[in-house]
Amino acid sequence: MTDPRRYFDDIQVGEEYESPGRTVTEADIVLFAGLSGDYNVLHTDAEFMKQSIFGERIAHGLLGLSIQAGLFTRATQAYATLAFVGLRWKFKGPIKIGDTIRLRAKVAAKKETSKPDRGLVTLERTVVNQRGEVVQEGETDLIVERRRGSP
Q1: Do the Cβ atoms of 139 and 88 come closer than 8 Å?
Q2: Contact 34, 65 (CB under 8 A)
Q3: Of 10, 23, 64, nearest to 42 (Cα)?
Q4: What percent of the chain clears pLDDT 70, i.e. is strictly above it?
Q5: Could you report the per-residue pLDDT of 110-141, keeping only the tens digit for each?
Q6: How far does Cα 68 stand from its chain's mean position?
Q7: What DSSP assignment string belongs to the chain?
Q8: How far apart are CA 60 and CA 40, in angstroms?
Q9: Does the global pTM surpass 0.90?
Q10: Pairing, β 118-128 against β 134-145
């Protein structure tokens, strides 16, 4: 059986990916509140939020961050990832119930590590809604396995 994953050696700086869309539902927000324990009124009180600057409940920022992580796996062939090691992130706008978000990602950098069996890949990530508005963006660092026998 062949290994379908992409290794550090296979990934090129400048590669770009775009995921399919994913619509954020009320159920997503309710389940994430339960999972995280974050029951802030921004996410859970529809009546209160009608009077807010958003006009309605919004998704947890960390829910958007989590969804984009999953969207990355749908945007490209799976990396041979060993660890998620870094995150620099900005929450730029609300994600509302019914918004369809997608991820745009670009390989910004690759770096050798002190261990010869792996390398560091830095990805620029942008989460956009159905109107093309950037709602989240940042960079992530992944430790990705090298192919056996790679220099």
Answers
A1: yes
A2: no
A3: 64
A4: 98
A5: 999 999 999 999 999 999 999 999 999 999 99
A6: 3
A7: ----PBPGGG--TT-EEEPPPEE--HHHHHHHHHHH----HHHH-HHHHHTSSSSS-B--HHHHHHHHHHHHHHHSSPB-EEEEEEEEEEE-S--BTT-EEEEEEEEEEEEE-SSTTEEEEEEEEEEE-TTS-EEEEEEEEEEEEPPTT--
A8: 9
A9: yes
A10: antiparallel
> In the structure encoding, which two tokens stand for residue 32, read together?
């994430």
Q: From CA 56, how far away is CA 29, in angstroms rounded?
A: 13
Domain boundaries, the chain: 8-145
Q: Span 8-145: which CATH code?
A: 3.10.129.10
Task: Look at residues 72, 52, 64, 137 and name the one whose alpha carbon lies nearest to residue 97.
Answer: 64
∠ CA 111-122-16, rounded to 5°? 115
Is residue 133 within 8 Å of residue 93, measured between CB atoms? Answer: yes
